[in-house]
Design brief:
Length: about 170
């Protein structure tokens, strides 16, 4: 069955989506303010890479602390724009009957994954400053696996929900 998915979803964002979008932007702003506040105390060399144990193993000029906030802001903007364009998502088993539910579910998934990624990158930026001050920060071996489990778990839950929506309609 052919589905007209060429038009954007007409529903407005849910309150949860609006709040989480604002919270993720506030995290980025707080990170930038934090970096400005720490700038004078940062050494010339700061950690720019962490190994699997969460320990700094690569160092660069202190201007590199702005790289993560820049990437974070670009990701936030791109994902926020993509949330408004559910008609470009590749959703299997999309029908006229289930497209609104599928779009909303997929849009919510993207919103939550955005918050998770932003939180992780802001945390990594904070961690870099802590290491540059000689304070070991991080969760060690568990840091990256915890992030991946949370993010992939979120995606898995929403893909399961999309599958249920497809079977119910």
């Amino acid at each position: 069955m052919s589905v007209d998915n060429g038009s954007a979803i007409k529903e407005s964002k849910t309150t949860f989506e609006k709040v989480s979008t604002v919270v993720s932007l506030l995290l980025i702003i707080a990170n930038v303010i934090y970096l400005f506040g720490q700038w004078q105390t940062l050494p010339d060399q700061v950690p720019i890479h962490f190994n699997a144990k969460g320990e700094a193993d690569g160092w660069g000029n202190k201007r590199m602390v702005w790289f993560l906030p820049a990437i974070t802001l670009i990701l936030w903007g791109g994902m926020t724009i993509l949330e408004r364009m559910p008609h470009v998502y590749n959703i299997p088993n999309l029908t006229e009957e289930n497209k609104d539910q599928q779009f909303m579910n997929t849009r919510l998934m993207l919103n939550i994954v955005k918050v998770e990624i932003i939180t992780f990158l802001v945390y990594t930026s904070w961690q870099s400053v802590q290491w540059s001050h000689g304070k070991e920060a991080g969760l060690g071996y568990f840091e990256l696996p915890i992030f991946l489990i949370i993010m992939l778990g979120t995606i898995g839950v929403f893909l399961y929900q999309n599958n249920k929506i497809s079977k119910n309609k």
